[in-house]
Amino acid sequence: MNRRSLSMLLLLALATCRQEDMYSQEKAVGWGKFFPFPGRMTMQHPVPGTVARNPADAPVPQPPEITAAMLARGRRQYNINCVPCHGQSGDGEGMIVQRGFPKPPPLFNDRLIKAKARHFYNVITHGHGVMYSYADRVAPADRWAITGYIRALQRSQHAQVAELSDNDKQHLQESNP
Ligand code: HEC
């Protein structure tokens, strides 16, 4: 086949592709399901033994188990990155908001208490409405740690005195004589 007829053939092959079909065809998207992959999940764990170039940036596709060390890390990261707007308790009255930045919803409102952990991970990663993305400042593992700490903040709003340790009960009595 000479070059000219080869290019004609290629043109014909291209002409038969319809953009809509390619757009709407089955494909793997973000956190979604994808039949041919193991567990039907698009996002797969890295192959065992994979070494991340920068461990802090290694993908963490599923929420890890919550540990005390992770909560402590989440608290630190929350206080550094989120408190200026969301406030220490998550009420949305941070210093920047008091100076005129749009007020975020309380992190412990009913909707966010019911929201999946992944929602918080995604908000930190991609931003939400007027809140910009924190992907370049908060590493993936820390996004889960902050999410864990937000769960603790949510719980703290509805805690019963009876659930506290003796030590905490005493602190409470001392601070509210
Ligand atoms: C500069 C201020 C600012 C900072 C810093 C900030 N946020 Fe936000 N955040 C907002 C505002 C404003 C909204 C409301 C956005 C909207 O609805 O348009 C918001 C919304 C949210 C929501 C609610 C999303 C929903 O479903 O309504 C979550 C969760 C959240 N932020 C988490 C975080 C976390 C975690 C951090 C720290 C890593 C953080 N934010 C840092 C301003 C901020």
UniProtKB/TrEMBL annotation:
Entry annotated with the keyword Iron: yes
Task: Please state every residue range assigned to the domain named Cytochrome c.
Answer: 69-154
What superkingdom heads the lineage?
Bacteria
Q: Which UniProt keywords apply?
A: Heme, Iron, Metal-binding
Task: Give the InterPro entries listed for this entry.
Answer: Cyt_c-like_dom, Cyt_c-like_dom_sf
The protein's GO terms of the molecular function aspect are:
electron transfer activity; heme binding; metal ion binding
Q: Does the keyword Iron apply?
A: yes
The protein, known as: Cytochrome c domain-containing protein
Taxonomic source organism: Rhodopila globiformis (Rhodopseudomonas globiformis)
